[in-house]
Design a protein that fits this description.
The complex is a heterodimer of chains A (284) and B (224). Chain A has 284 residues and is an alpha+beta fold. Chain A is built from ten helices and eleven strands. Helices cover 88% and strands 0% of the residues of chain B. Classes of the chains: A alpha+beta (284), B mainly alpha (224). Chains A and B meet through helix 6, strand 6 and strand 11 of A and helix 4 of B.
């Protein structure tokens, strides 16, 4: 985690000591980022941060600074000052410590700048009010888990929900995130902060089974499913529902548009599918 | 003989005319006797020569007569002298003496020998031709017989060959079936091998995925 700078003022000292500090900093920069000048390095950080917000829809200052590998909190603040990002106070504010007090969204300038750099466009609304406040914790966990996995190099790429929806427009349920492992395997990540019951749980389990099952001539959509929750009870519940041999029902709309349970079609979670599903409690 | 008679008469006349003188006569008679004896000796000599000539001519005439008896086909060199003697005025015709019969039988023997030789040769040649024809016939018959036997042997061989071919076809069909079976087994083995290799690759990939996945899970700040 980046360490927050204790002060923004220049450190006191003589001209010689400041010159020595600058020389040291330059040497570190040329070692970590060879071939890149300060301007290019700054542009790259800016692009990474804006692209992150563009993909996720919003982000927090803490996450943006992590994305930009900034050693202090200056990157998010600088992007806000540059009018690329807009900081909006959340409804909870500082009341909930596990939620960001402000969310950062792209401004029109920020959106224009990032779209100039990309070949494909994603749907994006620059209206902060459209960000669902009830899902801040959900996506905050998703972003944190993703950036930490990227930094740990345990994943090499990821796709957010709307990117997967762009690629698969057949209305199939999408996971919250899709992580790509170094081998190319795809891990569907579900952030579950509330328990599912009844039909909703059956639909979820069936979706997981279908996503991990290969069809004739068509490989499975995902290689693993990782369910992350912040509650042990929810983890235990999903773990039980997705264990090998657990049963679930099939639901379908009837002619009147009512969703009905199909009788005598109780399904079981296959062993090979259950082995590819992991439920974990995380404190991210 | 007539000459001798005339000489004797002449001598006697001389002696008679000279009778007067006996001594003379006796001398003359002695001379005449001596002369007569000499003449007689001369005559005897001539008579012997003439007799030898006559015997020779008689012999030749007999030979010619024998040769010309019944079938006159002796060579001219043999009968020329005899035939000449027969036609001359001496008229020596020859007789049925030994020379006559010797010549006759010699001729007959020669003719018989020639004829016998000719007939014998012809007979031998005839027998030779007959044997040659018989040999040719026998050879032809042998050939025909051999050909028939060869044909029968060929038919037997053909039947045996056909049987062998049939057996070979059956064996070949068996080999083909076995080969087909082995090929099928080989294809199935290759398919099983490919499936096993694919399964190994899938397992290795799964292990790789699992290792990477464990790193992902381990990297999470988990609490349970």
């Amino acid at each position: 985690m980046p360490t927050r700078s204790t002060t923004r003022s220049k450190p006191p000292g003589t001209a010689e000591s400041r010159k020595a500090q600058l020389t040291h900093a330059y040497r570190i920069m040329t070692t970590r980022f060879p071939g890149q000048g300060p301007t290019a390095l700054g542009e790259e950080k800016l692009f990474k941060a804006l692209y992150w917000v563009y993909r996720w829809g919003w982000s927090s200052a803490k996450t943006i600074n992590r994305v930009g590998a900034s050693t202090n909190a200056s990157l998010a603040a600088r992007l806000v000052r540059a009018k690329y990002l807009e900081a909006t106070r959340t409804e909870s504010g500082l009341a909930q410590k596990d939620l960001p007090s402000r969310i950062l969204t792209l401004t029109a300038d920020g959106l224009s700048k990032i779209q100039r750099e990309l070949e494909t466009a994603l749907p994006y609304s620059t209206e902060p009010a459209k960000v669902r406040q009830d899902q801040l914790r959900h996506y905050q966990m998703a972003q944190t888990a993703t950036i930490e996995s990227l930094y740990a190099q345990s994943i090499v790429a990821y796709s957010v929900e709307k990117e997967m929806a762009e690629l698969s427009a057949d209305g199939v349920k999408q996971p919250d995130i899709c992580w790509e492992l170094p081998s190319g395997a795809k891990v569907a990540v579900e952030i579950e902060l509330s328990g599912k019951w009844g039909r909703s749980l059956d639909v979820f389990v069936r979706g997981c089974v279908l996503a991990l099952s290969a069809a004739p001539g068509k490989p499975a959509r995902f290689d693993r499913i990782l369910i992350i929750s912040d509650t042990n009870a929810i983890v235990t519940r999903y773990r039980a529902a997705l264990s090998a041999g657990s049963t679930y029902e099939i639901w379908k709309k009837d002619a009147n548009g009512h969703i009905q349970q199909l009788k005598d079609l109780t399904q079981k979670v296959p062993v090979e599918v259950a082995a590819k599903i992991t439920c974990r409690k995380s404190n991210v | 003989m007539s000459q001798i008679k005339r000489l004797t008469a002449l001598t006697l006349a001389v002696l008679l005319l000279s009778g007067c003188e006996e001594a003379n006569l006796a001398n003359e008679n002695a001379a005449l006797k001596a002369q007569n004896a000499a003449l007689q000796r001369s005559l005897d000599g001539q008579l012997g020569v003439r007799k030898a000539e006559i015997d020779y001519l008689m012999q030749q005439a007999s030979i010619a007569a024998g040769c010309d008896f019944m079938l006159p086909f002796c060579p001219t060199s043999i009968v020329a002298v005899g035939r000449k003697v027969q036609t001359e005025e001496e008229g020596i015709a020859g007789g049925a003496n030994i020379w006559f019969w010797l010549a006759f039988w010699a001729k007959m023997f020669g003719a018989g020998s020639v004829l016998g030789g000719a007939f014998g040769s012809a007979h031998l040649y005839w027998k030779y031709l007959g044997r040659k024809a018989a040999l040719a016939t026998y050879a032809a018959q042998e050939k025909v017989g051999c050909s028939q036997e060869q044909q029968m042997a060929d038919q037997v061989l053909i039947r045996a060959t056909k049987t062998e071919v049939q057996m070979a076809k059956v064996e070949l069909a068996g080999v083909r079936a076995a080969l087909q079976s082995e090929q099928t087994e080989l294809v199935e083995a290759q398919e099983r091998k490919a499936e096993a290799e694919a399964a190994i690759l899938a397992t290795e990939a799964e292990i790789q995925i699992q290792q990477e996945y464990l790193l992902v899970i381990g990297g999470l700040n988990t609490g349970g």
